[in-house]
Amino acid sequence: MKQKGLLYAGKAKSVYRTDNAKHLIVEFRDDITAFDGGKKDTLKNKGNYNANVSAFFFSYLEKHGVRTHFIRMLDENRMLVKKLTMIPLEVIVRNFAAGSIVRNYPFREGSPLRPPVIVIDYKDDSRHDPMLNDDLIIALKLATPEELKKIKAAALKVNSLLSTLLKKQGITLVDFKIEFGKAGKAICLGDEISMDSMRLWDVKTGESLDKDVYRFDKGDVMATYHRVARRIMAPKKKGKAKREKK
Ligand code: 5GP
Question: 0.85 cut: is pTM over it?
Fold first, then answer.
């Protein structure tokens, strides 16, 4: 398998073609951004932590019946994935009130949301990812009603699996953002699931274990990513995600 030309470069990941038309390579770079790219830095090893945590979660979800784009890790930063036609939706599942819903609605920070709340934003930085509703998603032809139903069901399944897994490590899954794509007619989980796209709180101390440390200058973000990556992956697997054999 050979890496070919750059297909797309986002704020923290680059996507490359391969010699197989059905596969792509996602490179997790060391770049970190917040506030629509208004805050930017490059932090050594950040790509490695996010790639390996994403690979760990994708493998776990696949084992439990969630279809994902993950195939295998190629090295510390590069993931081989199935090519999907991405759906420009940011699907956010919230178990506790935090972040934008506390700023925009009368929720108290940390109050539980039972059942979990799904919020779907339109993935478009130039419009600042505006929130959608089902009618808008269908009117914009971003997904059919059947696809939307599948997307929401998959998002709730991911939430339930990851909340349970993280709770065992003493971590509360407060909220997270995922993205889906289509492989033929099948809806598949794509993009990443990492400390950049989740809000994680230590069960005992309430300490932030995610990108909020960077967003709000709460401490040493790389020390946090290092600790949380070990905490998430270490008890189950001593090494990193499965690597391609030379
Ligand atoms: P909020 O709407 O509170 O800012 O974010 C809710 C959750 O979704 C957080 O875990 C946050 O990290 C994630 N999230 C929302 N928008 C984005 C985005 O554009 N990129 C990434 N990586 N995560 C996002």
Answer: yes
13 lines ligand 1 (CB under 6 A): no
State the Cα–Cα distance between residues 27 and 10, nearest whole angstrom.
Answer: 10
Yes or no: say if 12 and 26 are a contact pair by the CB < 8 Å rule. no
**198 Cα–ligand 1 center, Å:** 7
**pLDDT for res 142:** 98
196 lines ligand 1 (CB under 6 A): yes
Domains in the chain, CATH or no CATH each: 3-85+221-232 (3.30.200.20), 87-201 (3.30.470.20)
Ligand 1 atom showing the smallest separation from residue 192 Cα? 22
- Residue 91 Cα, ligand 1 centroid: separation in angstroms? 9
pLDDT of residue 235: 64
Counting residues of the chain whose pLDDT is more than 90, the rounded percentage is 93
Spatial distance between the Cα atoms of 143 and 136, rounded to a whole number of angstroms: 10
Atom of ligand 1 nearest to the CA of 121: 16
Q: Is 146 helix (H, G, I), strand (E, B) or coil?
A: helix
Does residue 244 surpass a pLDDT of 60? no
